Structure formats: structure tokens, C-alpha cells
Amino acid sequence: MKLHIESTKIDFHQLIRNSLNSIWIIGKEGEILYCNRACLDMFKVTCSKEIISKNIWFFLHPSFHEKSKARLERVLTNNETLEKIEVQMIRNDGEIIDVEVVTLPFYLENKVFGQVIFQDITLRKAAGQLLKDREKLASVGQIAAGIAHEVKNPLSSVKGFLQLIKETQSHPYFDIMEDELEKALNTLQNLLQVSKPDLHDEPLIPINLCKELTSLINLFQERLYSIQVELDLRDSEMEIIGKRNLFQQAFFNLIKNALESIEDKGKIRIEHFYKDDLIHIKISDSGLGIPKEKLKMLGTPFFTTKSEGTGLGLTQVFTTIHEHHGNISIHSELGVGTTIHVQLPVKKCYHLT
Ligand code: ADP
Ligand code: MG
Q: How far does residue 335's CA lie from ligand 2's centre (Å)?
């Protein structure tokens, strides 16, 4: 027979204490009278006294104080249950977190208190933002590729007619015109290649990225007199499955950027290791670094800060990594350097027979 537990016998405090949601009971002035265990994890404190000795204003980001005071008033005087809102709170270690909060009245011994139920949504928000950024990047890439395609055809015919004219007539400007057209067509071709990597229709094969990285570095011999390269390639037997040419091009682009970021002398470090079912590749340089406000622009077609740059390198890198279900993150500090961290899913060493 199924066991039935009468609700009057349930130790509700046990439920609340172990709830995954953080819960406070608060008084009129925002003093915290009770907090459950989830609050300790959330604010990174070890003991509930560190929370109960304070009031909610201590944890709530100052930009939300005014709004929250008005909300608390509504709960305590009108006994209203309030709609869910997003606020920011400050953890014990100073970190600001995004939090979703519901506030409602809590009745105890003929008095009304505020019950605040909240959860940390920082990771959820960051994941949402990442997805939006990726979608934006993908659509900018698609638009750019679409335009490239449309412009390439008329330009090609202009080039054809120019060649025809050149057969019967001569003019000193014809060669310059042809060169310029060639440059424009090249740019468009590059753009088409980087924004639509599937055009190559390459087969998926096992790739040993340690080998690829070592051969790529050798392509930059002449820069390596003034730049010290440190290779730390661990777990070198591991392989990923993917399109080899795309990866060669992508890591070439990353190493090239790292080298170009160093004006005179400096150092780059390339790391390869396996952790948590992923191959991690980190390319760090002691170069100029990237200003914070420009970080968001990286990967957008044609975004470049170099006079001779194309702004297509990172577009190719991002599309390739994402196409292979990988992830790329960039940490940079002005004047100190940049680290590009690529993570790719791995199948343990495949041996082709
Ligand atoms: P390009 O190299 O042609 O400019 P990319 O797409 O490869 O185009 O890079 C775009 C921009 O990103 C660069 O112009 C540069 O401003 C910035 N960038 C990329 N990698 C680095 C790096 N390792 N250090 C500093 N800036 C970088
Ligand atoms: Mg580049």
C-alpha cells in the first residue's frame, strides 16, 4: 500500500532549509530574520550568522534599493504577493550576481513579514547572451556572404569586359583598373570562404592538433627571431574529428594574430591539453591586448584595427570552432596580452586502418 504522509506531520522547516532556492524572512527595515542553506552557497559565506547579522540592503546592489523599498512596503502594508523581478546582488567576495526574486507576505504570530525567494540566474543570463551574440555573428556573416555573392558576379563581368577592351585598345589606367578589380574580387572570395565554410565540403577526419600546431609554428620562422615561442603540448595522443583544412586555417589565423599583436620583442605560448572530455588549446601572447569595448566586435566580418588587416581571420576562426561544436573565449588585458582559449569536444584517439 502506498504510504501517505499527512501534511500536518511534515517538517516544513526541513523542506525550506534544504530548498535549492534561497529564502529569507525579513522585517520592516529589511533586517534579515531567517535565511536557509541555499543563501550560504549563493553569497559564498560559511555560516548563516554572516547573513542574519546584516540587512537586505547590504546584499542588494544600490541601484535596486529604492525600487525594493517600495516593493517591501507593498508586501507589508497591502499583503501583496509581488511579481517576479530581476535584481543584482553582491556576494561576500564582492562579485555582482544577477538574481530573480519573488516577494510575498509571511504571517507569523499575528505579524506580517516579508518572504523573499530568490535564485542566482547569472549563468543562465550569460548563456543567453552568448547565444544572442553567436546568432548575431552568424547573421552578420550570412548577410555579408549574401552581399559578397551578389557583388562578385557583376564585378567578374566588368573584369571580363575590361580584358576584352584591352585586346583591342590600350590605356595606362587599364592595368590599374584590373589590379583593383582583382583585389576586390579576392576580398569577396575570402569573405565567402570564411563565412560559409561548408562550401569546401571537406570530409571529417581524425586530426591531431598537436601535430598541426607544431607545423603551423614553423611557417612563421622569420618572426621567431624576436619572438619567443613556448609550446606546452600535453596529451598529444588525443585527436579530434573534424575538417582539417578549416582547423589549419583557424589556428594559422590565431597564431598570426598573436604574432602581429607583438610590436617588437615578446613571447607567445601555445598550450594543448585534455580535460573534461574536451581538448583545450590556449594561445597567449604578450602583445598589445584588446580594449574591453572592442572585445564584442571580434569575429564580426571586416572588423580590424590593422592598416593592412582584412578583419576576416577571426570570422573564420569563430565559424570553424562553432561548426565543430566547440567554444572559444578571449581574455585580454591592454598592454599585457591576450589569451585565446579554444575548447573542442573529443573522441578518444581514433586509429584509421
Ligand atoms: P585582422 O588580423 O585582419 O585584423 P582578425 O579577424 O584576425 O583580422 O582580427 C580582428 C581584430 O582583432 C584585429 O585587427 C585586432 O584588433 C584584434 N585581435 C585579434 N587577435 C588579437 C590578439 N592576439 N591581440 C590583440 N588584438 C587582437
Ligand atoms: Mg588576423
A: 18
